[in-house]
Design a protein that fits this description.
mainly alpha, globular, 630 residues, two-stranded antiparallel ribbon
């Protein structure tokens, strides 16, 4: 590993570790603590950018070992490839924006809480820094034992951040649910790690690959059991239904910047490890086409279930953060579906497998951006109005124009509208499903599920934006609402621009994904490529799979808009603003507006029944019942 890369790695983790200590020391001064933490995360993100440039520029992998254990055959080895560099950028990039957003958000919450504000701060920023450091370690460590340690430890700061407001029983219940679900998943991963150690001789990833190759020949049932245990742990973190049922409870409980990281970053690590388990272990280990197809279709079915039930529950919800949490379950289903298709086609149609894998990484990046953005805008609404209830919201676009514009950008991206990052992932998924159906007819059913899921994603995105920001205000209380501080607006604006930039210039997401594909599995499978004219996907044989040229579409939209404007001017029709007609009655618009509960009301009972939550025991009441819900 080059010396400059080793220095970048050491500095990156050193800054995050120092941030934990500094945050404790500076906790009596919340604002200074927040900005210093943001500066340290910015330094770590800069190191990750430099490290990624070295990895992608050289087109190779770097590995460095920091320590060996003598008690057990394990070593602290960090492995950097184009694949985990993408996730490292996502962790620290979104972590930086969430930390900047937290400065004003946490200061306001800690000031409003009864008791010492220092307690609230000292329980927030140190846990946040540990959370970022453990996620970064989990994607970089290649030794199975140390990976399990980092993966398990990651749940501790996540739990502390989820139960930050630990005086509400629903928050404690959400934390308990998160702990129970992730503990079951961690046990599954531990079982798999021990199986690989038993037949591989040590905890290195290379030994796990050798053990998988041996078990697939001698004990195939044990090999598939180990993969099933890994899948249980990773899918629990990914948030797919039903293993990810902790998400709809954890998001309303956690502070909004933490919700952005949970949904935008942490659950994406499950996708990273699913890819490693099936491509790095099963494919390299020599799994047959039949077993890979069976596993891929199984994961695809689980992804389809998450797409439908998560989208249905989101469309029926009237709580801003719960709506977005259900949408995370649905979007995780898209990622899992992409990975399932890639695994199923790995030996049947390698070029289409590459296309589906690239689609999965594009979904990871796009959903990381627009879902973090939407959770931050929901946090801004909560900060400004004190409520998450869409029934009590409305007309905030006039009072919070910057937040409304950012929310609209995130909503159109999560809805998969062209010229946004979310559309690119769906376009690639459609192509892989449509072309792959010639090899596996079941993919036709998956394609229909994606169509229905796209309709549901548009429904809940429109409901969030329409009920909160558009239309008439819900009441006189809206007159007192003001835009959030600049420190909260800037991260929203950056993410909104990112959601649009990913749609206008898809190569920003696809080129790193293509580089990652070269280093997945054996690296010998055909590679999808990008032609000229925007996003023109070509398969390994050079044949065109499908095309989408964002600049050309943008020009067409501009021409159509200009023609519409010219025609309206040439018509010379007069226009005037009048209040909406209230059947001849003088009724305030707030009394006749369609509340959020009325959206899709004929379908709401069916949509609600689609998602069956797993209940956990209620927690006892701690402290005052009437407190701020931020």
């Amino acid at each position: 590993m080059p010396i400059e890369a080793q220095m970048s790695v050491g500095l990156m983790f050193g800054l995050l570790g120092a941030g934990t200590v500094v945050a404790v020391i500076l906790s009596p001064r919340p604002r200074l603590c927040g900005w210093v933490s943001a500066a340290l995360v910015a330094g770590a993100a800069g190191c990750a950018v430099w490290l990624g440039a070295l990895v992608l520029g050289a087109g190779t992998e770097f590995e460095v070992t920091y320590a060996h254990l003598h008690i057990v055959p394990a070593s602290l080895t960090l492995h950097f490839t184009p694949l985990n560099v993408i996730f490292l950028w996502l962790i620290l990039g979104l972590g930086l924006l969430a930390t900047i957003y937290s400065v004003d958000y946490v200061e306001g919450v800690s000031r409003d809480r009864p008791g010492s504000p220092t307690i609230a701060v000292i329980r927030y920023y140190p846990a946040l820094m540990l959370f970022l450091a453990s996620m970064a370690a989990a994607v970089c460590i290649s030794d199975m034992l140390f990976f399990f340690a980092a993966w398990g430890f990651m749940s501790l700061p996540a739990y502390l951040l989820i139960v930050h407001d630990n005086r509400r029983p629903e928050v404690l219940r959400a934390g308990l649910k998160f702990f129970l679900f992730t503990s079951v998943g961690n046990i599954g991963i531990l079982v798999a790690v021990l199986i690989f150690y038993r037949y591989g001789g040590d905890f290195s990833f290379g030994a796990a690959q050798a053990a998988m190759a041996t078990l697939l020949v001698t004990r195939p049932w044990l090999a598939h059991t180990a993969i099933a245990m890994l899948a249980l742990g990773f899918l629990t973190k990914l948030g797919t239904y039903p293993m990810g049922d902790w998400l709809p409870d954890a998001h309303p409980a956690a502070p909004s910047p933490i919700s952005a990281l949970l949904s935008g970053v942490m659950i994406k690590l499950g996708a990273y490890d699913v890819a490693h388990a099936f491509f790095g272990l099963m494919l390299v280990g020599g799994a047959t086409a039949a077993s890979l197809t069976a596993w891929g279709l199984t994961l695809g079915v689980l992804g389809c279930i998450s797409i439908i039930v998560g989208g249905a529950a989101a469309a029926a919800s009237v709580d801003t953060k719960r709506l977005l949490a259900y949408s995370s379950v649905s979007q995780s289903g898209y990622i899992l579906l992409c990975l399932g298709v890639a695994i199923a086609l790995a030996r049947v149609a390698p070029a289409l497998s590459a296309l589906a894998f690239v689609a999965a990484l594009v979904f990871v990046v796009a959903d990381g951006v627009h879902k973090s953005l939407l959770f931050l805008t929901a946090g801004s609404v909560l900060h400004a109005t004190g409520t998450r209830d869409l029934v009590r919201l409305g007309g905030l676009g006039e009072r919070m124009p910057a937040t409304a514009a950012a929310a609209i950008a995130g909503a159109v991206s999560v809805g998969g509208i062209p010229l946004t990052a979310g559309f690119v992932g769906k376009w690639l998924l459609f192509e892989s499903l449509l072309l792959g159906a010639a090899y596996l007819p079941l993919l036709t059913v998956f394609l229909l599920v994606v169509v229905v899921g796209s309709i549901l994603s548009l429904a809940y995105a429109l409901k969030y934006v329409g009920a909160a920001y558009l239309g008439a205000p819900a009441g006189q209380a809206s007159d007192d609402v003001r835009e959030v501080p600049r420190g909260m607006r800037v991260p929203q604006t950056v993410l909104a621009l990112g959601a649009v930039a990913g749609g206008l210039w898809p190569a920003l997401m696809i080129r790193p994904a293509l580089a990652a594909w070269q280093h997945v599995g054996s690296g010998a499978l055909p590679l999808a490529g990008i032609g000229s004219g925007g996003l023109l996907v070509r398969l390994g044989s050079g044949g065109l799979a499908g095309g989408f040229a964002p600049p050309a579409l943008l020009v067409l939209v501009a021409i159509a808009g200009a023609l519409a404007l010219v025609m309206s001017r040439l018509g010379g029709a007069a226009s005037r603003e009048v209040p909406s007609w209230q059947s001849g009655l003088d009724v305030p618009p707030a009394h006749t507006r369609l509340p959020a509960g009325g959206w899709y009301w004929p379908f709401t009972p069916v949509l609600r029944r689609a998602y069956q939550a797993i209940e956990v025991p209620a927690m006892p009441e701690l402290g005052a019942a009437a407190i701020d819900r931020r």
